[in-house]
Amino acid sequence: MRRLIIFSLFVLIATLSACATLPTGPSVMSLPGTGKSFEQFRADDAVCRQFAFEQVGGVSGQQAAQNAAVTSAAVGTVLGAAAGAAIGSASGDMGAGAAIGAGSGLLLGSAAGSGYASSSYYENQHRYDNAYIQCMYAKGNRVPVYGRFTEPAPPAPSQWDSRPPADYPPPPAPPRY
């Protein structure tokens, strides 16, 4: 029975890790700065990738996702086995209860781990991208800028504005005496 649980855990972890093919670099585009050669840009890119990797603790997005999935599956298995053993001891068969609890804990822990893995990956990738963009910008390269860039609307004339509109004719000259 123990071999079956260990084998099931191994198959589940291998299946979860096989589904994830995640990038290990920045997910944003950067371009060489004005007057920079391609070689300078490549050197800046290598330095900034290393800087970003250090800023996220030396863990890639894929590693963070796998760690979250495996941890959740293991915790679910242990908690399920403990709950199953407690319920099984009340019915008189602690071993069967522990095995059933471990199996259901593995399934529930793996399902929860999938969600944690996804959010862990995206959070780690977002932090990596921010550090990469900061570094590339500091080295004088072009990086994406998010926001709305539109011309501001001209202010509407108010009744308190003492200036006449631009197309209004000038006032008449004062009379001469």
Give the biggest sheet. Answer: none
Number of strands: 0
Coarse shape? elongated
Structural class: mainly alpha
The rounded Rg comes to 31 Å
Order of H and E elements: HHHH
- End-to-end separation: 119 Å
State the share of residues found in helices, binned by percent. Answer: 55-70%
Count of helices? Answer: 4
Beta-strand residue percentage: under 5%
The low-confidence runs, each spanning 5 or more residues with pLDDT under 50, are 18-22
What is the averaged pLDDT score?
Answer: 73
Topology:
Elements: H1 2-19, H2 38-55, H3 61-91, H4 94-138
Can you give me a brief rundown of this structure?
This protein has 177 residues and is mainly α. The protein contains four helices and no strands.
Write a structural description.
The N and C termini lie far apart (119 Å). With 177 residues, this protein is mainly α. The longest helix is centred in the middle third of the chain and has 45 residues, at 94-138. Mean pLDDT is 73; it is low at 18-22. The protein is elongated, with a radius of gyration of 31 Å. It is built from four helices and no strands. Helices cover 63% and strands 0% of the residues. The protein has a domain at 2-15 and 39-138.
